[in-house]
Design goal:
365 residues, alpha+beta, 64% helix
Length: 365
């Protein structure tokens, strides 16, 4: 009991001396031990790293999930350590609506068929977006969050302890200055040497932790590369899906577009739909087995005027009598016809013959 009382009294005395020292420093009535310039610079860098990491994280979360209500819901589920309910994203919702409306208007009609194809593409983009979010969360956001909730909290703890040790040191210096008697001065000198040693040891611990922020920057740089790669893959997939969709819509009968234009008679000018150039240089994206559709084998086939076997990647419904309907995984013979559009080849299946789009094919050796 007496030991506990003495310990509480000592702790109270230490706390009081720190409070007095801190107050006198604020009032300009006591000197303050300054940290060395290198340590101060490291502290500033760590604080800047923390602030910008928080800001980048926040803006990345907004980019990946613009809906604040959904972000809040996901945050609550994360804190409760429960899995958030799976919901369709905006692309998938749009795709579902297009597919359902296309079925209502009739898959056999040009408009209904076009809606279904657009809907399927929107759902593909939705799936790619889901992969982007998952990859970014694992390889980019999680390491940033781990730094804030792990390493930086440790730095904060040691920095606060360094502040306590500095106050103890300066309080000991003040006590030494005020000591009059020889015995009191000897005790004050002993206390100052002890607090100086503790301060130096804590300053070294804090310095080592702060220098580790350089490793954090290097790790975050690798995470940034992963994030950029994930975005590159996502946008390349979207481009691939949309160009493929544009080719499918471009294969619809010309009478469909003519009917649309003729219905706008009365002086209104026709609307021109821009065509996307497929010659842009993009990283190859594997969409199932469809990533090989743009290989150089098609150029060789066109230049040789010969024929090759090709595997069909997806089902394709002929949009006119000049085209050949396709079934996924079947093997057909394809050849180039002079004057034919570069996005098409002539396909043969037994006695059946017709144009087929190259994006639905994979040439076989």
């Amino acid at each position: 009991m007496d030991f506990n009382v003495k310990r509480l009294a000592a702790d109270a005395g230490t706390f009081l001396s720190r409070a007095v020292q801190f107050t006198e420093e604020k009032l300009g009535q006591a000197e303050k031990t300054e940290l060395d310039a290198h340590l101060e610079k490291l502290l500033v860098r760590a604080e800047n790293t923390k602030q910008w990491t928080e800001r980048i994280m926040k803006q990345t979360e907004v980019l990946l999930q613009p809906n604040p209500n959904v972000r809040l819901e996901e945050f609550v589920y994360e804190k409760l350590e429960k899995k958030a309910p799976t919901r369709m994203n905006n692309h998938e919702l749009l795709g579902q609506s297009m597919i359902e409306s296309g079925g209502e208007f009739g898959p056999g009609t040009a408009y209904g068929n076009a809606l279904i194809k657009c809907g399927e593409t929107e759902k593909q983009i939705g799936g790619a977006e889901r992969e982007l979010i998952q990859s970014s969360a694992i390889n980019f956001l999680t390491p940033f969050r781990n730094f804030l909730e792990g390493d930086f909290k440790t730095i904060l703890k040691e920095r606060k302890l360094l502040q306590v040790k500095r106050l103890d040191l300066d309080a000991a210096k003040t006590k030494l200055k005020k000591a009059r008697m020889a015995d009191g001065r000897a005790a004050a000198e002993q206390e100052m040497r002890m607090t100086q040693s503790e301060f130096d040891r804590q300053a070294e611990i804090t310095r080592l932790l702060l220098e580790g922020v350089s490793s954090t920057h290097a790790h975050h740089l690798r995470c940034l590369n992963d994030f950029v790669e994930a975005q590159t893959t996502y946008y390349a997939q979207c481009y691939h899906y949309m160009v493929d969709l544009q080719k499918q819509l471009g294969s619809f009968p010309s009478t469909f577009s003519n009917n649309n234009q003729s219905s706008m008679s009365g002086g209104a000018s026709s609307i021109s739909v821009p065509t996307i150039s497929v010659s842009a240089s993009l990283p190859s994206v594997s969409a199932g087995r469809g990533g090989s559709a743009a290989s150089g084998g098609f150029n060789e086939l066109r230049s040789s005027n010969g024929s090759r076997k090709a595997r069909v990647l997806y089902d394709y419904d002929a949009a006119s009598s000049s085209e050949l309907s396709l079934l996924a995984d079947e093997v057909i013979v394809v050849s180039s016809v002079p004057g034919m559009d570069s996005d098409w080849l002539m396909g043969e299946r037994g006695n059946q013959k017709g144009k087929v789009p190259i994006t639905y094919l994979e040439l076989l050796n």
